[in-house]
Amino acid sequence: MDIIPDRNHPYRQELYQILEEREWLDKNIDEIMSKYAARWIGIKNKAVVAVADDPDALKQELATQGINCRMLFFVPTSVHKQI
Fold first, then answer.
1. How far apart are CA 46 and CA 7, in angstroms?
2. Hey, what's the torsion of the CAs at 61, 79, 16, 2, to 10 degrees?
3. Each residue's pLDDT tens digit, 45-80
4. Beta strands in the chain (DSSP E)
């Protein structure tokens, strides 16, 4: 008996959203690095919604704004790209 996953389950939908955010981040990493290098950012709906110098401050900023954000990311100063 094969088990077919429910693609519409809220948990799966949340995972798909996180993957979309990650793809957006990958596509826009150069611009994001130019603005936020060496800082922490919160990403929601394919946009940077909060910025801070450390993860605790970022979580506090998100809480202050009332934003539920699952994508927290430390922006590197450089990225190694394949040739």
1. 21
2. -140
3. 999 999 999 999 999 999 999 999 989 999 999 887
4. 40-43, 48-52, 71-74
